[in-house]
Write a structure and sequence with these properties.
By secondary structure, this protein is an alpha/beta fold. The chain has 30 helices and 14 strands. It is elongated and about 105 Å long.
Length: 807
């Protein structure tokens, strides 16, 4: 009877990273052998600790099975057990995996004895493999799927592709008949399959294996033969099986070659298939040897692209080609992060998101550099405007992708884009065009074409092609994300059904037209004069942040601490800026945050009323400010009448919105939205009191009035001393343009147009309006980034504190 002791290493938290659910959750891995053949070649350490692709053989076996869905492991050790256990136990990546190390003292009797020691601990179905066999997770999953078709019978994973077997003389051959093993052994003459070293055993077979080992079956093949002679063992032939036994240095090299082949992705473009992967896979194995993390590679590739973009922006042919060459080298290295993640089982949702966003961003940066070079070479300002449009489209597209992924961070499969809608129209021509476009749009192909265009001095044409391609891609991304949002939440209004990218593009065009008609030198001199004083403008925003917080505090009747409400406003408004949904992208976040203190009804009603008060204060502030301006400033007749009409309409709209807010409409709106989102089934109607409403309105209107302070600070920075009417006129036109064109994200372009118009009425240069607008937009971006950073920082601190409490 063999003696075996069990050394348990239970995880601190249940592991849940398997990509695919599996009905087989247990595995026995044999790691007790002497690795005699490697010892004869001079290897002075246990073979199971030999690294292939950056991972020890035993470590790779565990992580491969875990990737296939296995959760519980019994690792049988014998020879060199002290060295094996000492090294394996200090590996941080295995600490959260349920591993029992089984010490088998009688391992020299044969691998059947170690098999019996390992199997004795399992009553449920389990897998058996050897630590010196490598597999791809896909091969293991395929085997489990086939084994589950007849789960009551044991099975052996077999390879029918005999031509691909590396060393047939050393392989264990299998003769199958009707899907069962008829004969098995290394010396049999007739065979049709090869044993891969991966077995499946049904429920209750663990005890049976242990009993057969104790009864004298001292080899795995002996135990298997007894099952063959009984109910039989199925021979499951796997298609495209990736496996390799590692018994000697030659097999080790073959294992590395086969692992390298698994790194090639089916969606690769032709450049990657024929050029990039040949180089990147070899670099990946080198990086794996030194333990480099995939995210480090992603960062290095991004930095290398920045170097290439800097060099390519000089506007000189030789430097442009050099920059394109660096960009192409970065494209080759760009494959290494994904390869390294797959090779070393370091794939993660955050890593995938980081790699995709960084990859898209680095292409945009390099194309921007080509545009700047074209401007330097030709002197044409059209390139500057095109560069601005490209940057605006890139920011929009990346923010859409990031927000979509973030909103679905809890999903099983993290993606940057939803699946495209099903197209019921079948057209070979359209499909051909789309497939050709998709092939050209792959990053490896785009980078290579860019390199070729730069070599033949067509970098200007490449820039325009990149602008066209980015525009088309941004529209496709936005339509895909918008369609997914409509499918989930519905589109109750006409504006909701229109893709927001068109309003965004309209704002970008308006802004570019304004800049095109301005004296850029005046704008540049004004911005240069601002310098560090810009932070004075940023600091004024604290005034209306506090006022807006007091407004929402009034609406929730003080049930939420003031500091938490200020955090809610700062972070929620940050997402309103970043997510282009007519300034409402952060409202769902605000509601969810408030539900820590309030129920869904109260939280959503408070936010809806806050938005109504925001709209009401904007309309009335615009009406008063425009009316004040018309009274004190002499304005041309062609502008006077439209402004009078606008002021009157805003006043009527403001009064009407006040009436609406005092009815049950906010509760009905909240109920409609929450029912659409399937958050609640029933929703109560609860109108706000007049006293509470007007108190909240006072704080919101006060916050709008603080815009006068910001405008005063900007005037002062420029060394100007404005009159009160100047401040009111500029604030009124900003509020008017923002209210009239609310659908354009963050008033892009229209706010600048409003400021320029007001300054023109007052006798200032129109160029000053662009400077005003850019400074205010810089303030907006600063607080948006601050809010997002604050949210992320608080989230990290909370998770860290929670983990310490659990620990």
């Amino acid at each position: 009877m063999n003696s075996a002791s069990v050394l348990s290493e239970k995880p601190s938290a249940k592991h849940s990273l398997a990509f695919q659910a599996s009905s087989v959750k247990n595995a026995v891995i044999l790691a007790a052998g002497k690795s005699q053949r490697f010892r004869e070649k001079g290897l002075n350490k246990p073979k199971v600790l030999l690294k292939i692709g950056g991972l020890r053989l035993l470590e790779r076996a565990i992580l491969t099975l875990r990737e296939a869905g296995v959760e519980h492991f019994r690792i049988v050790v014998g020879a060199y057990k002290e060295e094996v256990l000492a090294e394996m136990r200090q590996l941080p990546r295995l600490r959260d995996i349920d591993i029992d190390y089984v010490e088998c003292e009688e391992y020299e009797l044969g691998n059947g004895v170690t098999f019996g020691a390992g199997a004795a601990g399992f009553d449920e179905p389990f897998l058996l493999t050897m630590s010196d066999h490598i597999f791809s997770p896909e091969t293991v999953r395929d085997f489990i799927e086939q084994a589950n078709q007849q789960p009551e019978l044991p099975a052996l994973a077999c390879d029918g592709n005999l031509e691909e077997v590396f060393d047939m003389d050393d392989a264990t051959k299998v003769a199958s008949q009707d899907g069962f093993i008829h004969n098995i052994g290394k010396e049999i003459a007739a065979y049709d399959l090869v044993d891969t070293g991966l077995f499946y055993f049904p429920k209750g077979y663990g005890k049976m294996v242990s009993e057969k080992a104790r009864a004298g079956a001292h080899s795995v093949s002996g135990i298997i033969q007894q099952f063959i002679d009984g109910d039989g063992v199925r021979a499951l032939a796997l298609e495209n099986a990736m496996w390799q036994d590692v018994d000697n240095p030659g097999m080790k090299r073959e294992a590395e070659r086969r692992l390298m082949k698994t790194l090639i992705q089916p969606e690769d473009g032709w450049v990657s298939r024929n050029i990039n992967r040949f180089l990147s896979t070899r670099i990946t194995f080198l990086l794996a040897r030194f333990g480099v993390h995939p995210n480090v590679v992603t960062t290095a590739v991004f930095l290398l692209t920045l170097v290439g973009a800097y060099v390519a922006s000089f506007g000189i042919y030789e430097w442009i080609v050099a920059g394109a060459l660096i960009f192409q080298l970065a494209s080759i290295l760009d494959g290494c992060d994904g390869e390294l993640a797959r090779l070393t089982f370091r794939t993660s949702r955050l890593g995938a998101l980081y790699e995709q966003l960084a990859g898209n961003l680095r292409f945009i940066i390099f194309f921007e550099a080509l545009g700047i070079s074209a401007w330097k070479a030709t002197g044409s300002e059209s390139y500057l405007f095109a560069v601005s449009i490209l940057a605006a489209l890139a920011v929009y597209m990346l923010s859409q992708m990031a927000s979509f992924a973030w909103n679905r961070r809890g999903d099983k499969d993290l993606t940057l884009l939803p699946p495209p809608p099903v197209n019921n129209v079948q057209s070979k021509v359209l499909d051909g065009i789309f497939n050709f476009w998709r092939e050209l749009n792959k990053q490896d192909v785009s980078a290579f074409i860019t390199f070729l265009f730069c070599i033949v001095f067509l970098y200007q044409a490449m820039f325009w092609l990149a602008l066209i391609g980015t525009t088309a891609t941004a529209i496709m991304v936005s339509k895909s994300v918008h369609a997914a949002a409509i499918r989930q939440e519905g589109a109750p209004t006409f504006f909701d059904r229109i893709d927001p990218i068109y309003f965004y593009l309209l704002g970008v065009v308006i802004l570019c037209v304004l800049i095109f008609n301005m004296e850029l030198s005046v704008v540049a001199e004004s911005l240069a004069a601002v310098g560090n004083k810009l932070f004075l403008v940023f600091s004024v925003a604290i005034l209306w942040i506090i006022s807006n917080t007091l407004c929402i505090r009034t609406l929730v009747k003080g049930k939420v601490p003031f500091t938490d409400l200020m955090y809610n406003q700062m972070t929620g408004d940050a997402y309103n800026v970043i997510i282009p949904l007519a300034g409402l992208g952060g409202e769902p976040y605000k509601i969810k945050h408030l539900t820590q203190w309030l129920d869904w009804h109260t939280a959503s009603r408070a936010i809806v009323v806050d938005r109504l008060i925001h709209a009401t204060s904007g309309a009335l502030f615009s009406a008063l400010a425009v009316g004040f301006t018309l009274y004190f400033v002499e304005i041309d007749g062609k502008f006077f009448v439209p402004l009078v009409i606008t002021s009157i309409l805003f006043a009527i709209a403001g009064v009407g919105t006040i009436w609406l807010s005092l009815t049950s409409a906010p509760s009905k709106i909240s109920g409609y939205v929450l029912k659409k989102l399937k958050i609640v089934e029933e929703f109560r109607s609860d109108p706000i009191s007049a006293g509470q409403f007007f108190q909240a309105f006072f704080f919101k209107f006060l916050g709008r009035s603080f815009n006068l302070v910001e405008i005063l600070v900007i005037f002062s920075i420029f060394g100007l001393t404005p009159k009160v009417v100047d401040l009111v006129a500029v604030a009124g036109m900003i509020s008017t343009s923002a209210t009239l064109f609310f659908i354009i994200p963050q008033g892009l372009g229209v706010n600048e147009a409003g400021i320029s118009s007001a300054l023109s009425f007052l006798g200032y240069t129109a160029a000053l309006g662009i400077t005003f607008g850019l400074i205010r937009r810089a303030r907006m971006i600063f607080w948006a980034l601050f809010g997002v950073a604050l949210h992320l920082a608080v989230s990290v601190v909370k998770k860290f504190a929670l983990s310490r409490v659990k620990g």
